[in-house]
Amino acid sequence: NILSFILPDLQFVLLDLISLDKHLEQIRSLINQNVKYPLKAKKLSIEGIVTVKFKINEDGTVENITIIDGHKFLQNATIEAIENASKSFPKTNQSIEIQIPIEYKLI
Question: What is the pTM of this model?
């Protein structure tokens, strides 16, 4: 009897995590598609990782974009990429806070 109560909860949690993982994958992909290498950083051959934290609301809107670490010439491009990408962010069943690294590398 106890198992019949636990399994549905576990299944719900697993489905929720799988759904969240798919959302995060989509969000990261959208951000990467919107990253534009800053001209000044390109001219100065500046590369690096910008770590950024932000909150995605249930309706897909973004707030509290905060740069945790990264070169100052890459920070605004990161914020702009998130703001532009957020127009296509999926709706979620809860607000989530994300912290991700965005890599800038010259080819």
Answer: 0.78
Encoding tokens for residue 6? Answer: 């636990």
Quick check: 90 and 56 in contact, CB under 8 A?
Answer: no
* Helix/strand/coil (H/E/C) assignment for every residue in the chain: CHHHHHHHHHHHHHHHHHHHHHHHHHHHHHHHHHCCCCHHHHHCCCCEEEEEEEEECCCCCEEEEEEEECCHHHHHHHHHHHHHHHHHCCCCCCCEEEEEEEEECCC
Sign for the pseudo-dihedral over CA of 101, 63, 77, 36: positive
What the block records as the tokens of 60 is: 């897909």
Distance between terminal CA atoms of the chain?
A: 60
pLDDT digits (tens, 9 = 90+) for 21-44: 677 888 888 999 999 999 999 999
